Amino acid sequence: MDPKKIYQKTEKGEDELRTRKYNIPQNLRQVLIFVDGKSNIAKVLEKAAGFPNVGLSLEELAVQGFIQLDETITFAGIKDELIATARQTLGADAEKVIAKIKDAPETKEGLQSTMDNCKKYWAPGNCDFLKPSQKREDVIDMQLKKQGFDPAKVKAVITSHTHLDHTGNIALFPNAIHVFQRKELYQGWWPEKFQGRTSPGTFVMGDLSAAREFNYLELDGDYDLFGDGSVLVLSTPGHTLGHQSVKAKLASGKTIIMSQDAIWMQENLDGYPAGLNYSVKDYTNSLNRLKFMRDLEGTDLFMAHDQDQYAAKGGRWYK
């Protein structure tokens, strides 16, 4: 039972209070009186603290149809919280965000509409399968702000390839230089037919269209991004024509390799190629390159879609 939710009386509940038509027990009747359509569950529990088993009574009243959750008020409350958060975190930039929050749905039907909107941007199967649940505070620009960085001052953004789960949200960095392999930019606009040219699909034109006028550093192979060996862009084709990975030297002196989709998960390292490759031969060569770099240099190798590795090492910053 979510203490933030709000119960309201149904027509049946109102009828019971007026006429005692259903002759419910006194303990249920007393709790029914406290349900006013304004107080959330936590407040009702507080008001009825002198009565036994109030939580169970609320559940029983709901089962019997005397009360129901007021979805409109519940979602309106969430919107109020989002608006307060926007004002607190965005300052002068908050009003545009707040306007969108106010226009957001407040009902289950409205939330279904939000899911339908997902299907206008992504392929319906991707929405149904992945069930996007990312909150605004989870998005990369907000994560950077939590660490004290200004997204508007990001100098460079390296994107591994142009599939939807890697290129999405690059539009959040309009002032950065975006680093791609030259082939991959063409791949994003005109992919091989077997990967699907219908958009939205594996490739989402909206991701690239929103960033079409940005500045791009178009590479033709490996590249030392800052000229000091701290960030090396590694050409790792196979999954797509212009896929790339990154080897980074951390402030601690430790080196890590971020494979992205050059290696999806441990089973690929064990000899089972990932699916959706334009060339298994090139994919295998790129995988072996990263694997041998890991073994020879003693680096950590982070894969793009390995749930076990994420459970063990994810959800944290490496410095």
Note down, in words, how this protein is organized.
The protein is α/β, with parallel strands linked by helices. It folds into 3 domains: 7-69; 72-130, no CATH class; 139-313, 4-Layer Sandwich (Metallo-beta-lactamase, Chain A). It is 43% helix and 13% strand. It is built from 15 helices and 10 strands. It has helices spanning 11-19, 26-34, 41-47, 54-63, 71-90, 94-102, 108-121, 124-130, 140-146, 164-167, 182-189, 205-209, 266-269, 280-297, 307-313, and strands spanning 7-9, 67-69, 156-158, 177-181, 215-219, 223-224, 231-235, 244-249, 255-260, 300-303. A 5-stranded mixed β-sheet has the order 6-7-8-9-10, covered by helices on one side. The chain has a 3-stranded parallel β-sheet with strand order 3-4-5. A two-stranded antiparallel sheet has the order 1-2. A hairpin with a 6-residue loop joins strand 6 and strand 7 (231-235). The radius of gyration is 26 Å and the shape is elongated. The model has no long low-confidence stretch (mean pLDDT 85).
Essential attributes:
Metallo-beta-lactamase, Chain A, single chain, 5-stranded mixed beta sheet, 10 strands, 319 residues, 3-stranded parallel beta sheet, 15 helices, 3 domains, alpha/beta
The domain count comes to 3
Count of helical stretches:
15
The CATH C-level name of the largest domain is Alpha Beta
Identify the overall geometry: elongated
C-alpha Rg, in Å? 26 Å
Strand content: 5-15%
CATH homology superfamily name of the largest domain: Ribonuclease Z/Hydroxyacylglutathione hydrolase-like
Low-confidence stretches: none
Overall mean confidence score, pLDDT: 85
CATH-derived topology of the largest domain: Metallo-beta-lactamase, Chain A
What order do the helices and strands follow?
A: EHHHHEHHHHHEHEHHEEEEEHHEH
Helix content: 40-55%
